[in-house]
């Protein structure tokens, strides 16, 4: 993102994103679905911060936007797969300007360009970066293996808090292949920040464990702590 | 006295409800001030949620039919959504589930239209026949009967049964001619008696209850709670019926008895469902109460039964 667009264009993009949050994300997640949010107070409201979430549905990003107050939501930027969202011009415009994604090149990272460059820039600019460390939506309501990207981000910005968020029920509502979301109530669990660590395998296992615990909690297996 | 565009009876009835709520809030505040060491959070949440419920309810019955049916239809939507969130559904049924949701606006449209014949058969006949057909088109037979049955049970309780409450609003003026079709008061009678019965059964059970009615399903339900609650509800029906409805005192007392007994049944049937699914509350939409089905469980029985009782006798 070397070329900075004119202020007027940036204002236009900001308005588009706000309209998307208020006009699409809110009605879909709050009326059509319905969110039960646990520990909203743990959500980082100021950047730089990294929010890591499980990924089962396109509804994930709508839900995560809804968690933030409208005054902060423009500062929240989700990293999403370039090969999927930049397929064609219309989709690319919608994904980057209206939804506000940061494109990330998946799979074998090329030697010339760091696939996470956009994410580094966002964190350096004090944004709240949303990352789906599983990489893909995968099977509905099933956790996939955590990829390494998060560890590389943490190495560059070790002091930035990494907050896990687990969303239960979105894959059931609109998993891969589905086009219209089926209304279900959705549970959102926000966890305490996770420390970055040097040992990559241990760090990835730690993230994976956090999500496994949250998943259990969401399924009501672990005894649920009383929430205010 | 009454500055609002609603009937005087409705105005006074709503004023009484407002006073009851104010009294409840004042009591909770007093308890919290008098015994600060105890945890009053749940009671406080409960009362605060009651304010919301009453606000939505007043919205639902005080304007015109369109507003009422939109609000009550949305309540059915929330209840059905909560039910489907709890029960296991098959991935293959993605589109049939959306079709099932479509039954809600259609059902409430028949009510708006006042088409009784269609209202009364649409879900038991047409939705019942259509949804399995739509599921067959998907082609997955694994767990078919279970999926079709749970879906239909949900529609019958949360949409069909509850929509009888809404149909009270559009009943034409009754045979006695004493009421010019003020359905809002009929809904008020049904809902107040049903919710009052829940509270009365709880209080009688707390103070006198010893022998359990069905310990396997609901350990808190006692014979004393049941009998005391039914008796109190019958009494309240006898008192309120002649004021709010075209019923004479004897019929009104019998309506109270009917609501008292069947409200209990609705409560324990929904308890059995929750127990089967391994949950304590049906959701957490209503802080201090649980889910919306925890509040509407009794109504799924009282609404259709009171409706047909009243319709048979007076319409």
From TrEMBL, chain A:
This is 1-acyl-sn-glycerol-3-phosphate acyltransferase. The keyword Acyltransferase applies. One of its GO terms (biological process) is phosphatidic acid biosynthetic process. The chain crosses the membrane at residues 14-37. Keywords: Acyltransferase, Membrane, Transferase, Transmembrane, Transmembrane helix. Residues 49-170 form the Phospholipid/glycerol acyltransferase domain. InterPro entries: Plipid/glycerol_acylTrfase (IPR002123). GO terms for molecular function: 1-acylglycerol-3-phosphate O-acyltransferase activity. It holds the Pfam family Acyltransferase. Pathway: Lipid metabolism. It comes from Chitiniphilus eburneus.
From TrEMBL, chain B:
The chain crosses the membrane at residues 9-30, 50-80, 92-110, 116-138, 150-171, 183-204, 224-244, 250-270. The keyword Transferase applies. It is a multi-pass membrane protein. Its main location: membrane. GO terms for biological process: CDP-diacylglycerol biosynthetic process; peptidoglycan-based cell wall biogenesis. Belongs to the CDS family. The lineage of its organism: Bacteria, Pseudomonadati, Pseudomonadota, Betaproteobacteria, Neisseriales. InterPro entries: PC_trans (IPR000374). The keyword Transmembrane applies. This is Phosphatidate cytidylyltransferase. GO terms for molecular function: phosphatidate cytidylyltransferase activity. Keywords: Membrane, Nucleotidyltransferase, Transferase, Transmembrane, Transmembrane helix. It is found in: Membrane. It comes from Chitiniphilus eburneus. It holds the Pfam family CTP_transf_1. It is an enzyme of class 2 (transferase). It catalyses: a 1,2-diacyl-sn-glycero-3-phosphate + CTP + H(+) = a CDP-1,2-diacyl-sn-glycerol + diphosphate. It comes from the Bacteria. Its EC number is 2.7.7.41. One of its GO terms (cellular component) is plasma membrane. Signal peptide: none annotated. Pathway: Phospholipid metabolism; CDP-diacylglycerol biosynthesis; CDP-diacylglycerol from sn-glycerol 3-phosphate: step 3/3.
């Amino acid at each position: 993102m070397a070329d900075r667009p004119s202020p007027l264009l940036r204002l236009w993009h900001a308005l588009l994103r706000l309209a998307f949050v208020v006009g699409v994300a809110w009605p879909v997640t709050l009326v059509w679905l319905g969110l039960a949010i646990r520990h909203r107070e743990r959500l980082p409201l100021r950047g730089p911060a990294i929010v890591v979430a499980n990924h089962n549905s396109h509804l994930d990003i709508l839900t995560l936007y809804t968690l933030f107050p409208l005054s902060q939501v423009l500062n929240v930027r989700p990293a999403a797969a370039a090969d999927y969202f930049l397929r064609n011009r219309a989709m690319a415009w919608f994904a980057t300007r209206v939804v506000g994604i940061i494109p990330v090149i998946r799979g074998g990272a090329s030697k010339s360009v760091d696939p996470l460059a956009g994410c580094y820039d966002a964190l350096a600019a004090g944004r709240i970066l949303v990352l789906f460390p599983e990489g893909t939506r995968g099977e509905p309501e099933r956790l996939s293996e955590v990829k390494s990207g998060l560890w590389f981000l943490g190495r560059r910005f070790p002091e930035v808090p990494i907050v896990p968020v687990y969303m239960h029920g979105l894959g059931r509502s609109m998993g891969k292949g589905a086009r219209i979301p089926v209304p279900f109530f959705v549970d959102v669990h926000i966890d305490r920040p996770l420390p970055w660590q040097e040992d990559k395998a241990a760090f990835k296992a730690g993230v994976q464990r956090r999500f496994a615990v949250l998943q259990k909690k969401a399924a009501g297996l672990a005894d649920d702590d009383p929430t205010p | 006295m009454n500055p609002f565009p609603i009937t005087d009876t409705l105005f006074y009835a709503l004023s009484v409800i407002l006073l009851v709520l104010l009294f409840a809030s004042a009591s909770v505040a007093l308890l919290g001030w008098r015994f600060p060491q105890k945890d009053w959070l749940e009671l406080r949440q409960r009362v605060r949620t009651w304010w919301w419920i009453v606000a939505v309810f007043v919205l639902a019955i005080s304007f015109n039919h369109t507003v009422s049916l939109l609000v009550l239809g949305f309540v059915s939507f929330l209840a059905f959504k909560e039910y489907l969130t709890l029960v296991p559904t098959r991935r293959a049924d993605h589109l049939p589930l959306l079709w099932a949701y479509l039954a809600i606006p259609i059902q409430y449209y028949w009510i708006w239209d006042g088409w009784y014949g269609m209202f009364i058969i649409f879900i038991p006949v047409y939705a019942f026949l259509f949804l399995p057909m739509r599921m067959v088109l998907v082609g997955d037979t694994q767990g078919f009967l279970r999926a079709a049955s749970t879906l239909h049970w949900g529609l019958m309780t949360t949409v069909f049964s509850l929509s009888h409450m809404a149909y009270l609003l559009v009943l034409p003026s009754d045979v006695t001619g004493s009421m010019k079709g003020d359905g809002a008061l009929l809904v008020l009678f049904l809902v107040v008696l049903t919710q009052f019965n829940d509270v009365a059964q709880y209080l009688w059970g707390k103070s006198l209850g010893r022998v359990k009615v069905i310990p396997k399903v609901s350990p808190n339900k006692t014979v004393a709670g049941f009998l005391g609650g039914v008796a109190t509800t019958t009494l309240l029906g006898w008192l309120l019926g002649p004021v709010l409805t075209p019923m004479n005192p004897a019929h009104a007392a019998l309506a109270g008895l009917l609501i008292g007994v069947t409200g209990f049944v609705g409560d324990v049937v929904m308890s059995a469902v929750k127990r089967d699914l391994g949950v304590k509350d049906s959701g957490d939409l209503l802080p201090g109460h649980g889910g919306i089905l925890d509040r509407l469980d009794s109504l799924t029985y009282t609404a259709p039964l009171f409706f047909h009782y009243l319709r048979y006798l007076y319409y």
